[in-house]
Design a protein that fits this description.
Order of helices and strands: HHHHEEEEEEH
Radius of gyration: 26 Å
Largest sheet: 6 strands, mixed
Strand content: 5-15%
Distance between the termini: 104 Å
Structural class: alpha/beta
Number of helices: 5
Number of strands: 6
Helix content: 25-40%
Shape: elongated
Length: 255
């Protein structure tokens, strides 16, 4: 019998084959990663919108228990008593403990830590959180700059705050916005007007007094790919494009 010699053929990839496979994988990753990033951001935006709605519900619960008034930013313009500020006022309606540090900013930041799942934006949880655009009553009449105002501010108006019946167009007047740290509040552009270009992009976006502090008076209008969530006085949440957000004359910022 003839001896049969079997030659075992190598099944390893050649260098060229490996490079082709690596190239295909890299191409697929480059295609999928942006799509995954967009999907993740869309999910974060939905979560942020839901969180804002919870604050809207808390405000309405507060109003029902307080003769139809919006909560005050604080019960006195000059006080630093933490339980008087809006984040502690609404804490009970969100079923979270109040943060009663005697230092104003520690109380503010402490409340953010306690309500992080609700108040902080998942797209930037360390630097963006829900906050009011606030102010006081206009001089000479009883029209507020924003629905969340200071109580007993000098020469402004009644200390009880704004009544929901005072709101002329609740579906158009903004109550809460997404705001930047470290203070997580926004100065209303109906009072502190956008009349300086803080980031030198050709768009007036900041009140000059706050030029060294934060663009957009403390707001975060681009946190969701050029848009941001806003809560209106009727309780609905909408995504506001930057071009509409930056315009103080579009009716969103004034009652």
């Amino acid at each position: 019998m003839l001896n049969r010699i079997f030659v075992r053929r190598s099944v390893a990839f050649t260098l060229v084959e490996l490079l082709v496979v690596i190239g295909i994988i890299a191409l697929l990753i480059s295609i999928l990663l942006p799509a995954l990033g967009r999907a993740r951001e869309a999910a974060n935006k939905v979560v942020c919108s839901s969180n804002m709605r919870q604050y809207g519900v808390a405000v309405f619960q507060y109003s029902l228990a307080n003769k139809g008034y919006f909560p005050l930013f604080s019960d006195n313009y000059t006080t630093n008593i933490p339980e008087s500020h809006w984040w502690n006022t609404l804490a009970v309606y969100l079923r979270v403990p109040q943060q009663l540090d005697t230092d104003y900013y520690k109380s503010q930041n402490g409340s953010i830590e306690l309500t992080r799942r609700i108040r902080c934006c998942p797209s930037d949880p360390d630097y963006v959180a829900i906050g009011p655009h606030y102010g006081a009553y206009r001089f000479g009449d009883q029209r507020p700059y924003g629905p969340i105002i200071y109580g007993r501010a000098a020469a402004t108006g009644p200390s009880k705050g704004v009544k929901m019946t005072q709101v002329r167009k609740p579906s158009n007047w903004i109550m809460f916005v997404e705001t930047h740290g470290p203070y997580f509040m926004m100065y209303s552009p109906t009072n502190w007007t956008f009349d300086a270009d803080g980031d030198f992009d050709g768009i007036k976006d900041v009140y000059p007094y706050w030029l060294g502090w934060n663009n957009y008076n403390g707001g975060a209008p681009k946190v969701h790919r050029g848009t941001s969530n806003v809560l209106y006085c009727d309780g609905h949440v909408d995504s506001l494009p930057f071009k509409d957000w930056i315009n103080p004359n579009n009716g969103h910022w004034v009652n």
